[in-house]
Structure formats: structure tokens, C-alpha cells
């Protein structure tokens, strides 16, 4: 075999991570139905065999995308809690309202991925541990700031508010979101 005919393997230590990242992108754009090894290979600029080497089947791609999304969200929540450690509960609720509003803009794609993957976890028990990581992390991270009951309320409340806002023909205003969050998370004023 001549040197020219011999193909050298390109060293790419981040290939697996890039494939998983592209899986998330495709889920955001096309839903789970659009997630194929071929589409990932084209978008990630890797061979089809490379995608199947790192992820044996579509289920492995879905699991990797969910784990990435869940870990990213958990890290975000930990950072949020750290950044607002000295905030009053009212200030934290204001910041949470901004979080809901971000799902209508720059955070929309990430939220679509999370919703798609959480819906997938309903039928795939092996995904449920990763699917529940964001809610567990939210409750743990925000308990010192809001108290355990309100902190446990944040994840399901934010999930519902973002989903509603993203699907509403006329999205709610920040004031409307803030009103709901205040009512649900803060004790009533005397």
C-alpha cells in the first residue's frame, strides 16, 4: 500500500462531544424525528462510521443529548444560586422571571431540546435519572435562598411557564410572569 493510498486517522479527541452537541442542535431544529446518524455525520463533518462508533444507535444519541442538556442546566442553576446567594427572595424571583423570558429568545433552542428529551424520558425509563437531574439540582441549589418548599416548586413552575410562554399565540409579559412567580414562591404580604 502506498503512502498516498493509506489514510491516516485524524486525531480528534473531542469528536464524541461534538457529535453529542450536534445531536442537540438537530433535536432543537427537527425534533427527535430528525435525529439520525446520517444527519449528525453531515452536520458534524465526521464519517457516518464515526457516529456509530461513538453512539451505537439512536437511543444512545438521545441519552447523550439528554445527559448533556441536563448537566448544562444543572450547572446553570448552581451558577444562578451562587450569583444570587446574597439576594433577597424577591430579587431571586425577579431573576427567575428573566429566566422565563429568556426562553422566548436566546434560551429557546435549549428549552426545546429539554422538552423534547423530557418527553422521550416518559417512555424510556433509562432516561429518567438524567431527566430529573435539573429539578433535583434546582431544589437543592435554591433551598437556601427560597426555602425548601418554594425551591422544590421552582423547577415544575418554570417548566410550565416556559412551555406556556413558548406556545402561546401572544406570549405573556414579564410582569405577568413575575406575578405568577411571586404568588407561587413568596409568602403573602400582610
Walkthrough of the structure:
The protein is mainly α and 190 residues long. It is built from 9 helices and no strands. Helix 1 packs across helix 2 and helix 8 runs antiparallel to helix 9 (174-185). It is elongated. Mean pLDDT is 90; it is low at 1-9.
Summary, kept brief:
With 190 residues, this protein is an all-alpha fold. The chain has 9 helices and no strands. It has helices at 15-30, 37-44, 48-54, 58-83, 89-102, 108-123, 128-146, 148-167, 174-185.
Number of strands: 0
Sheet with the most strands, sense and barrel status: none
Mean pLDDT: 90
- List the uncertain runs: 1-9
Features:
disordered N terminus; 190 residues; mainly alpha; single chain; 9 helices
Helices and strands in order, then pairings?
Layout: H1 15-30, H2 37-44, H3 48-54, H4 58-83, H5 89-102, H6 108-123, H7 128-146, H8 148-167, H9 174-185
Amino acid at each position: 500500500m502506498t503512502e498516498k493510498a493509506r489514510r491516516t486517522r485524524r486525531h480528534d479527541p473531542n469528536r464524541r462531544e461534538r457529535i453529542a452537541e450536534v445531536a442537540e442542535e438537530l433535536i432543537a431544529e427537527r425534533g427527535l424525528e430528525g435525529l439520525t446518524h446520517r444527519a449528525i455525520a453531515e452536520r458534524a463533518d465526521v464519517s457516518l462510521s464515526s457516529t456509530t462508533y461513538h453512539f451505537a444507535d439512536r437511543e444512545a444519541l438521545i441519552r447523550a443529548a439528554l445527559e448533556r442538556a441536563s448537566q448544562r442546566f444543572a450547572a446553570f442553576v448552581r451558577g444562578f444560586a451562587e450569583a444570587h446567594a446574597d439576594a433577597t427572595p424577591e430579587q431571586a424571583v425577579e431573576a427567575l422571571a428573566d429566566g422565563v423570558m429568556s426562553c422566548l429568545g436566546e434560551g429557546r433552542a435549549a428549552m426545546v431540546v429539554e422538552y423534547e428529551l423530557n418527553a422521550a424520558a416518559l417512555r424510556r425509563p433509562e432516561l429518567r435519572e438524567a431527566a430529573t437531574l435539573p429539578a433535583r439540582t434546582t431544589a437543592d441549589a435554591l433551598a437556601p435562598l427560597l426555602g425548601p418548599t418554594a425551591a422544590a416548586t421552582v423547577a415544575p413552575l418554570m417548566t410550565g411557564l416556559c412551555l406556556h410562554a413558548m406556545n402561546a399565540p401572544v406570549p405573556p409579559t414579564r410582569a405577568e410572569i413575575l406575578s405568577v412567580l411571586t404568588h407561587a414562591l413568596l409568602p403573602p404580604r400582610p
